[in-house]
Amino acid sequence: MKKQLTIHYEWLEHWKELPESEHVLIDKAHEAAQKAYAPYSDFKVGAALLLADGTIVKGNNQENIAYPSGLCAERVALFYAGATYPGTAVKTIVVVAEGDLIAEDECVSPCGSCRQVMAESESRQEIPIRIILVSRDGKTWVFDSVKDILVFPFGVK
Q: What are the start-end ranges of the H helices in the chain?
């Protein structure tokens, strides 16, 4: 029996089409990217989370000469939020990147490890996490759930 999966997302020409309340998150993600530690790749990624209580948590990629000992921006932010605000749901995550590893008009997309961590976070809190991915020229993908960027996650229903 063949089955089909469908994902849903919104594509925007520019992030300024989003509600103004989300503009702050994009600014915070860019602030985080500026402070990334990326001396080897010069590819700086920033993430900003909006928690259910209104708190904004930032994270950025942290490289290490002993690759793969570094950590992605998404996981830095999610793990910090989990350690500092346990039990507080993540409503939205914004991810931006600076550097030439992807084209200016392409949105940075979370790696598989980050997607898995996001999926478990969403499953644990039992409410979807909105994901906003923004390219350097402003193009934006919006997903209403981690389920739309990771199908068949490990150990998550």
A: 20-34, 73-84, 112-125
